[in-house]
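hiii, so i know i said id send this last week but things got crazy w the move. better late than never?? heres the sequnce for the chain we talked about at the cafe, plus the structure i predicted for it. fair warning i was half asleep when i ran it
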Amino acid sequence: MKSLNAIRISGREALPLVEGGKGIAISNGESSGAWAASGGVGTFSGVNADFTGEDGAMVDQVYNGKSRRDRHEELVAYAIKGGIHQAQVAHEISGGNGAIHMNVLWEMGGCERILHGVLEGAKGVVNGVTCGAGMPYKMAQICAEYGVYYYPIISSARAFQILWKRAYHRFPEWLGGVVYEDPWRAGGHNGLSNVEDPQVPEDPYPRVAALRKVMIACGLDETPIVMAGGVWRIDEWEHWLDNPEIGPISFQFGTRPLLTQESPISDTWKRRLPTLREGEIYLNRFSPTGFYSSAVENSFLMELKGRNDRQVAYSTEEVGDHVVEFKFGPRGRGVWLTEHDEVHVRDWLAAGFTEPLKTPDSTLVFVTPEKSHQIRSHQVGCMGCLSQCRFSNWKCDEGGTTGKKPDPRSFCIQKTLQSISHSDDIETQLMFAGHNAYRFASDPWYADGFIPTVAQLMERLRVGQ
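okay and structure toks below
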């Protein structure tokens, strides 16, 4: 394989091996510090990050505010403390090697305030910020204020072109690189457009080559592209190295760092990864963000599938085919169903799915009383973790609402990600994963339950494997 040489990243020399930033407490200071210590680019998550108290114990992030707005303020304060803490931990472990980046989601609640808070509180510690899940126009200006490099996460050349023309052309010196995240293969939330088929993955090479053409037109010939999503071993991407169509290139790994000694995920989660099979990780549309997301099929995902399948359209008056009245709720208010749908409803009621919940699209979904209670309590307890949320109808503006009904077909993403990252429950919580996670089972390096250190993984990646 061609040699993998260090390149200039965030103002310093580092191997073109980047740790992917993974949501709540899944990539933290320990994992990113170890990655940077091995000469790469470590990335901790700035999304609802953990922090410790004076006694050194992790602080439980409990929300006491009586209103969503109050709880949102608590969340922002927690996030700033957590981001600063994880940055400091990563910096200490790295020993000044590699680079330390923070990953945030533009669509997370209070993103701009959290960026300002962490970058102010961790000056000289964070070298770069990666940001996706939306169009982060203001990220360039914020990072430039603190002398920190910024790395937008995009999934098409067109998306970067829009960002450049609208905002980034004013801060070219702080654009550290552009992260191309494959919308079919990456874990977490994915940037598929309405014209792209989620069932038909496209070859990333022509898409990245098109991105490089746009970057060259912007005078960014030497600005690195970070290939993210679907990368398992570098020797499979050797034709990208020293390739003028691609230009300076780095590779991001989000899934493989999960199975390392330094990874903070539970042992239960680590034991599950080598058992995954191809097809068990797929895209879904259940996220309250409205984006596609990639996750492992488990009881959590299957319940959401069933919930969405147990759905019928209703009318508030007898019209057309809606001729059967269906009364529900404590007041016995009626809606009108078709005769065909009424048959399904009777079957669902008989099976114990006795609670109909209205959606913003004039449909009813049928769930058990226990699930209905959970959905409503999660909606009521919303702390504004997203800029806008279809599950709870929260929105980060003066009104505090999207103006639509809460959507029971989705879920509280903050609660489930906190639960899976701080417990052994990987079955009834959302389990994000990149589509290559099934390769743990077939890669002989992980045979007999072997779990490498980050340093061992980095050395293996350096030689292409």
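btw The CA atoms of residues 188 and 294 lie 5 Å apart. thought thatd interest u
miss u guys!!
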